[in-house]
């Protein structure tokens, strides 16, 4: 092997081990978390090729910021979230999260969340205080190149600066319930008949990601909002 080739592999290896894709998200309250898992389980009956397995392989979540971070800088990401947590808590503990309808987009089946000021603020604040630790020069996905202008240029600029095409005015909160390239998700979701609901999130989590936009855990931290009364009241009302 030539020295150039060896150098190339070493660079690739360093690039692979030093970058970690993290998902910074809000978690669902216990009731809505169960509801999302139940919908996902039921969906598997009508869409047996769905590759999202909530509750067993991954966790329901609403992404605030998803990107690759430099591995050595993950402690700085965690510290960044801790530093701004008083602000995140203030906005998050009173933020009513309204789950609406299902949107089928390409292979994804997403339970849409009504965007509002507090969710937008949580995402903006998280991005502003952590993007300095992202992996530089992240790949622009092919689907971005097929978007119409001016959206294409806006998303490319976002990826270059923030490592994500879905921040600021492109933030579209949702809970992913399905990824399926075989079954007709429109027909399957009609059977599941997802109903609107709302909840107060208990926490912000930082977790590892799996395939198809899934989140595996809250491994890098769970930051609890100080809204336990609300969640308890909510649970009591439903029972
Ligand atoms: C995030 O940064 C942008 C650009 O610097 C700024 O306009 C915006 O007010 C910031 N938002 C928050 C919530 O920090
Ligand atoms: C990122 O890409 C730009 C333009 O291609 C280049 O100038 C810069 O050196 C790259 N930065 C890193 C850290 O690779
Ligand atoms: C899925 O089913 C719906 C309703 O029958 C139909 O309108 C749509 O074209 C189908 N989608 C695909 C990708 O076949
Ligand atoms: C956050 O809340 C969870 C669930 O209620 C609890 O298990 C955990 O101990 C809390 N963490 C902190 C740091 O308070």
Automatic annotation (TrEMBL):
Transmembrane segments: none annotated. InterPro entries: Cyclic_Pdiesterase (IPR009097), DUF1045 (IPR009389). Residues 1-19 form the signal peptide. Keywords: Signal. Pfam families: DUF1045. It comes from the Eukaryota. This is Uncharacterized protein. It comes from Dictyostelium discoideum (Social amoeba).
């Amino acid at each position: 092997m030539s020295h150039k080739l060896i150098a190339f592999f070493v660079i690739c290896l360093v690039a692979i081990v030093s970058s970690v894709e993290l998902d910074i998200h809000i978690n669902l309250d216990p009731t809505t978390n169960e509801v999302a898992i139940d919908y996902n389980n039921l969906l598997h009956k009508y869409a047996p090729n769905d590759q999202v397995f909530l509750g067993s392989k991954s966790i329901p979540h609403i992404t605030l910021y998803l990107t690759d971070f430099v591995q050595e800088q993950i402690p700085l990401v965690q510290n960044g979230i801790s530093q701004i947590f008083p602000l995140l808590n203030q906005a998050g503990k009173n933020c009513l999260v309204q789950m609406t309808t299902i949107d089928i987009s390409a292979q994804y089946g997403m339970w849409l969340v009504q965007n509002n000021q507090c969710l937008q603020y949580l995402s903006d604040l998280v991005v502003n205080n952590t993007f300095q630790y992202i992996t530089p020069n992240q790949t622009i996905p092919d689907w971005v190149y097929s978007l119409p202008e001016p959206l294409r240029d806006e998303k490319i600029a976002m990826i270059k600066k923030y490592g994500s095409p879905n921040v600021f005015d492109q933030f579209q909160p949702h809970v992913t319930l399905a990824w399926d390239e075989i079954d007709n998700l429109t027909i399957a979701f009609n059977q599941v008949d997802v109903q609107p609901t709302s909840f107060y999130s208990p926490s912000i989590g930082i977790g590892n990601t799996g395939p198809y936009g899934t989140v595996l855990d809250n491994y890098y931290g769970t930051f609890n909002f100080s809204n336990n009364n609300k969640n308890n009241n909510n649970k009591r009302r439903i029972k």
